Amino acid sequence: MIESADGAGTTSGASTVPAPTADTLLVPGETCWRIEQAERHAVFVDAADYFATLKRAVLRAERRVLFIGWDFDPRIRLDPRTPGRAREDRLGRVLERAVRANPRLEIGVLQWDLGMIVALNRRMAPIVLLNRRTPDRLRFAVDMHHPVGGAHHQKIVVIDDCLAFAGGIDVTADRWDTSEHRDRHPLRHRPHTTRLRGPWHDVTSLVSGPAARALGDLARERWESGTGEHLEPVTDAGTCWPEDVEPFLTDVDVAVSRTRPEHGGTELVHEIELLWLAVVAAARRTVYIETQYFANRRIAEAIADRLGEEDGPEFVIINPRAASGWLESKAMDTARVKLLALVRAADRHDRFRLLVPVTEGRQPVYVHAKVTCLDDRLLRIGSSNLNNRSMGLDTECDLSIEARTGDDREEELRAAVLGMRHRLLGEHLGVEPGAVAAAVEEHGGSLVRAVDALMRPTGRSLVPFQPPDLAPVERFLAETELLDAEHTPDRWRRVKRAFGGRRRQQRG
Q1: In total, how many domains does the chain have?
Q2: CA dihedral of 40, 37, 501, 258, whole degrees rounded to 10
Q3: Where do the segments described as Disordered lie (predicted)?
Q4: How far is the C-alpha of 334 from the C-alpha of 45, rounded, in Å?
Q5: d(CA 434, CA 422)
Q6: Can you give the residue range of the structural domain that contains 168?
């Protein structure tokens, strides 16, 4: 055990760390909350296909739909590529149509309270006013049950407790884009304006079966904490997998990992941070990461620790060029400069890359995805970023699959992890996934050397992140972590001892 755990899977952080015996990184009560089977599992890269699928799934829902989100905008279009009246494609209209067509259906939307400030800035009607204009079975609520400065950062949609989306994509404005990431896309704009927005990269996942029911439990718990209303599970809905969605995997175990801050009598849960540390500790060849920020000192120091080893792993991190918003830039971009210097100083063997995707016209693509691929062993898709608040202050939800040695489907799962890594890198580099796989093989299994070889000086590609010079105030913010303080105990040494022995030979 990494830490002692109660029956609900919360961690107290009080015990020592005997070495684990099982060959797995996903340990319920430690690095995850629960492991449940997904009858079907799919991955949506970028929001265009996700939003279109979400629309169809909501309109087919039988009993209940729960939206649990950091932000929510009922004015966005869900499927703008399909002909039809724009008004009827807007999220709010779709929800209203769903409940009016089905008298048994209830829809709940729970949004972080400070997210409403963002909504008001976008000239969106407050949720309290939306409630007055919608049917009784369509309810909008604001969630204020969090610590001061904290956010409800999960992005979950659960349909009839048999289908659940979870990952990094908020059902709000500025998220819609295709994987082409065109320099100018006529459909990539905010509601009620024709001003085009920049390219946006994001990832979420879809599960059915027991894994979806587990996310239903989490969503209903969150709904009750935010509204005081207790909801029973949905037990009488039919099979609800969207027929037009090709599963990524079937009958696969999925781990749910959480961050839940200490607040209102609940204990700290930092399974996500422990999983991050376990991934770094157990890495054999390569850790591939897509994240909005690189601003967590503890993870950066763990990476630096591994980079200092003679035979340590490579790390390839995909980041946006700059955080969106003034406050985020001051908090996260300044920390990134400091931590990047720390990591590069430790990178004696040239095994670290921090890269930014650019379009055909060399415009930076904003990276909002939260993805980790550990060797050919583990794939994690979720809401957590590499910053301090995602580890202990905000609520987060990540889903992981793992290839375990000796499992009957080990080879299939290994191929799936690598396939997703190469699909994502292919998107960023403007090449087919097979070209990424071939380059890795050509360079003796080195992902760093493969990416270096595939990067181009013109057109769509990846470019090295160039840290800016910090002004005195920015250096102060970076040194003090004033805008993004740590909220969890340091477990790196314990986790490294516990999971470092699991570095078996990988083919990734």
Answers
A1: 2
A2: 90
A3: 1-22
A4: 28
A5: 7
A6: 40-249
